[in-house]
Amino acid sequence: MPITLAFIVETLGGELVGDPLLELQGLAPLETAQAVHISFLSNPRYQGQLHTTQAGCVIVSSAMQALAPVGVALIVTGNPYLYYARLTQLWRLHQKRGAAVGVHASAVVDPQARVDPSAFVGPLCVVERGARIGPGSVLKSRVTVGEDCVIGARCILHSGVVIGADGFGFAQDGDRWEKIEQLGAVRIGDDVEIGANTCIDRGALQDTVIEDGVKLDNLIQIGHNVHVGRNTAMAGCAGVAGSATIGPNCTVGGGAVVLGHLTIAAGVHISAATVVTKSISKPGQYTGVFPLDDNASWERNAATLKQLHTLRDRIKILEKENKA
Predict the structure, then answer these.
(1) Can you give the residue range of the structural domain that contains 138?
(2) 141 and 30 inside one domain
(3) 185 and 150 Cβ atoms separated by less than 8 Å
(4) Cα four-point dihedral sign 57, 60, 65, 67
(5) Beta-bridge partner residues of 170
(6) 123, 191, 225, 299 - which has most CB atoms within 10 Å?
(7) Does the pLDDT at position 157 exceed 70?
(8) Domain end: 26, 61, 95, which one?
(9) Quick one: angle between helices 5-12 and 80-95, nearest 10?
C-alpha cells in the first residue's frame, strides 16, 4: 500500500520540498532506492550517494539539502535518523492488517500465569507459573518466561529469549559444586525490547531488574541480580556478570563485558569488545580494546606491556635520584 508524502509530513512533521501527492511504495538505502522509494541521509560519510541516488524522496538535514540532485523530493528535518526511525514505525503500522493478540495454540501458559488480553504469546512459547505478561507486549516464537517473572507493558521479546533461567550460582564443597537455588525472579519494565536468544537470569535472592525503555540486542547474557537502568542499550554478544549495576542512559558496545558487582554511572558509553574491570563513576566514553595489528607487532607490543610495571618502578627510582 503506497503512502503519499503529504501523509508522511502531516503525521511526522518536517519541511517538504517536492510534490506532496507523490506516492511511495517502500523504504530503501540511498544506493539502491528507486523512484518509488524514500531514503535518508544522516551520516555525512555517505553524502556522495546523495548525488547519484534514484530515490523519489530523501530525508535530509538542512546542511545536506543543497547536495540533493534536481528532481528528488526532500523532507528536511533536524535529525534525519530519528525521523527515519519514526517513519519505519509509521510504515509498519500502515501496512499491518491488525496486530495479533492472544495465545498461539502451540504455546504453553501455566494456569497460574497471567497474560494481559492485549498481549500476544507466539508459537511454542512457554509462560510458567506465576509469570505476568503486561498489556501490548509481544512474545515471538519460542520465548520462555520463567516462574514469577514479570514483563511490563508494550515489550517485545524476540525468538528464543529466555527470561528467568537459574543464575550461575554454586558453592564449592571440596572437589564438587553445591547448587545455590535461585530464589529471586526477573522484573522487566515497560517499552523494553529484547533481541533473539538473549538470556536474563533470575536473581539469587532479590530480582534481576531491567528498567523501562531498555533495548537489548541478540545473544546478550545478563547475570543474576543485575540491575539495568532505564533507556540503556546494549549491542549483540555483550555480557553482564552477576550483581552488576548499570545506570540509566548508558550504551554497551557489541561483545563488551561488564564484570560482576561493579557499578556503572548514568550516561556511560562502553566501546565494543571492552572488558570493564572496575566501577565507573563519571559519564563519558570508555574503551579498553588492544589495537588490531599484524601478529608479530602485536606480540612485541604485548610483551612490552608486561614490562610496564618494572619500567614504572625504574622511573620512580630515577626521579628520586634526580630530586636528591
Answers:
(1) 102-286
(2) no
(3) yes
(4) negative
(5) 179
(6) 225
(7) yes
(8) 95
(9) 110
Please state, in angstroms and as integers, the Cα–Cα distance from residue 320 to each residue in 263, 283, 316, following that order.
37, 36, 6
What is the total count of domains within the chain? 3
46 and 127 inside one domain? no
Q: What mean pLDDT is reported for the chain?
A: 96
Length of the chain as a residue count: 324
Buried b (16+ CB within 10 A) or exposed e, 242-281: bbbbbbbebbbbbbbbbbeebebbeebebbebbebeeebe
What is the H or E stretch that residue 51 is in? Answer: helix 47-52
Which residues contact residue 260 at a Cβ distance below 8 angstroms, ignoring those fewer than 6 apart?
223, 241, 242, 243, 244
Judge if 19 and 149 occupy the same domain: no
The domain that contains 71 carries what CATH number? 3.40.1390.10
Q: Rounded distance, CA 194 to CA 160, Å? A: 10
pLDDT tens track for 264-313: 999 999 999 999 999 999 999 999 988 889 999 999 998 988 898 898 99
Does the active-site annotation cover 224? yes
Contacts of 315 (CB under 8 A, 6+ apart): none
Digit-coded pLDDT (tens) for 224-259: 999 999 999 999 999 999 999 999 999 999 999 999
The identity of residue 201, as a single letter, is: D
CATH of the domain at 248: 2.160.10.10
Q: Is the pLDDT of residue 7 over 70?
A: yes
The residue annotated as part of the active site, out of 37, 158, 224, 227, is: 224
Nearest C-alpha neighbor of 145 from the set 108, 192, 100: 108
Which of 95, 110, 131 is the C-terminal boundary of a domain?
Answer: 95
The pLDDT tens digits of the residues spanning 207-233 come to 999 999 999 999 999 999 999 999 999
